[in-house]
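Researcher: Let's try something more involved. This one mixes different molecule types, so please make sure each is placed in the same coordinate frame as the others.
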Amino acid sequence: MPVQQALGRILSKDVVAQAHVPAFDRAAMDGFAVNAEDTYGASISAPVFLHNVGEIRIEEKPNLTLKRAESIAIVTGGQMPQGANAIVMIEHTRAMGKETVEITSEVHPAENVSRAGEDVERGSIVMTKGTRLLPQDLGMLRALGLVEIEVAQKPRVAVLSTGNELTDGDLREGNRIPDINRPTLMGALTELACEPVDLGIVPDQFDSIRDKLVEGIRDCDMVLVTAGTSVGPRDMVPNIIDSIGKPGMLVHGIAIRPSMPTGLAVVDGKPIVSLPGYPVSAYISFLEFVHPLICHILDTNLPPRPRIRARLNRRIAGVLGSRTYVRVKVTMSNGVCMAEPVRTSGAGILSSLVQANGFIIIPENVEGYEEDHEVEVELFRPLERKKSVN
Amino acid sequence: MPVQQALGRILSKDVVAQAHVPAFDRAAMDGFAVNAEDTYGASISAPVFLHNVGEIRIEEKPNLTLKRAESIAIVTGGQMPQGANAIVMIEHTRAMGKETVEITSEVHPAENVSRAGEDVERGSIVMTKGTRLLPQDLGMLRALGLVEIEVAQKPRVAVLSTGNELTDGDLREGNRIPDINRPTLMGALTELACEPVDLGIVPDQFDSIRDKLVEGIRDCDMVLVTAGTSVGPRDMVPNIIDSIGKPGMLVHGIAIRPSMPTGLAVVDGKPIVSLPGYPVSAYISFLEFVHPLICHILDTNLPPRPRIRARLNRRIAGVLGSRTYVRVKVTMSNGVCMAEPVRTSGAGILSSLVQANGFIIIPENVEGYEEDHEVEVELFRPLERKKSVN
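Model: All components are placed in one shared frame. Result:
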């Protein structure tokens, strides 16, 4: 794809430099290109005089060879002529009429010269397969003379919501509630250079769910399905997945809070992730299981996540044997970061993810943390928000 | 704009809940809706028997009022009927024929019930102006019943490169080099929810540069211009900016390394940032000056940046009186993070930004850091990269 459109995409091949960057020796300063030996001993009290043969404009390739005792004016970035091996900075020169330059300081060979290949050597690997392309990488690809680049295809990820009560439409009919998980998960997939494929909402019926999962497996690289993954009478998703193909469910039930009912499955070599219906659980499961899985498929590493150390403003409890995710709001005052737990339970409470700016993760073997304990917070929003002026 | 397209955009108004979320009292567990008083004293050895009047399906609005000594089956998320104020979990019940339920544990009023407004109260401010919309925010907006949302317009930012030697085309003619700054800056602007406007490349001529800057100021909200901002004979940009309008250049020359020649200007109430021509300098100036300026225009806060503590594997030198940005490559081994300076000078060396995964910032009043000193690194890539398998 064109380099300029490849922002955020993942390189699918190493990028090898086909030429030196810079391609030629270039002036690193404004001044005069010289043969360094001609300046040896030059000082303010004992200047050297060189015959100046003209000027090299930055956009031109010099077509002369500098002889001994000659100089030529050059600007930063200008290409060094044959016969020159150093630049005398303009500050250490004085023009003496049109054809003579006074040199008041000596230079050594290579001084103030950017040599060809100084930035990148021809044949070197500049970026490796799996690199997520940042803005400066686009610049580097252009510097290498590349206009197009090979990137990994966007994984197509199907997203299915299950639940008789869910609707994308009118909330006033019956006990209808909006489907929250699809917009959230599709947004999260878009952020990760995936192509979300909307499978819509299906009711809690074996065949309806099965048909959609089969469609997802057939058309996409991965399927995410929300709700129906617990152990109640409506929780058919694990059985449905097992009915589709082998190996089916690999893991069902994970020692994390929330998100415990998460299920991980493979059918026809494609992953199906069975996410809890509660939006907070679904989102945390996405971060912890789906995001790494997508990076694995793309053969790239997880991008770094912002973390900060903060003191707890009250005690928080974990669950021994489970990893617990606590949503917190971190504020900074007088240089001290304080973390306030937004709500330590209630996976149905979506506003906890909206009010929070970070998570604390309490490990499996920790009962909880006392007030004032220093914890590490994974930040997903700024510490401070703008005050409303409405 | 439609909620689903608003990922990464900035709210231009507070979002106020027009209704409770959830809209009604709802069951938080599978079980039986009851009047709590009817269960008082119930235990395995002294169960209470209630007359069960049917079942509430999750998608329906119940149209009955529960009488005393009655129960009705309900699933998690089902809407509570009139007359019920608690849920007995299914684990604490036993069906005794079709019309009788044995209750073996008492419940208190509100037990196992998600009350209306528990997540969001009607009339409360759910998100404030200036919030950058994350995936879970899209879900929350849908939970509030919103389909469209008001967001700040994308700032239009013009990007102009100056330099006789620059080309987007054939590198073999003369001493041509590719323009690196426009692809990099336009990519960085795209990441920040801006609309980059490409003003192309102009040669180092007063009128050509001036015409393009005037065009940028006329059509866009901000102008970025690279190169020509130092103090040599080709460095006309500050004078050109001053010739366009008032107040013109406000700052020219900043005590940071690299990026010292950065200039900040305002013309007709619009910012012009005069960035150095060296790609590393231009990019660091962008991060330090343009990114905060864009957040200011959007009335939002800077998103958190990932940071990590690491030990230096060799000494690095700062410049007293200047803030110095050192590109480093951080690696983790046996749980210890080591930072290796990629190159401490050479703003022309673009590969330093490609090889590095972070910056160390040496403050103005620090001469440098010794080997093994623990420093804070601002990370922009993962700690580890995939090994090449090509």
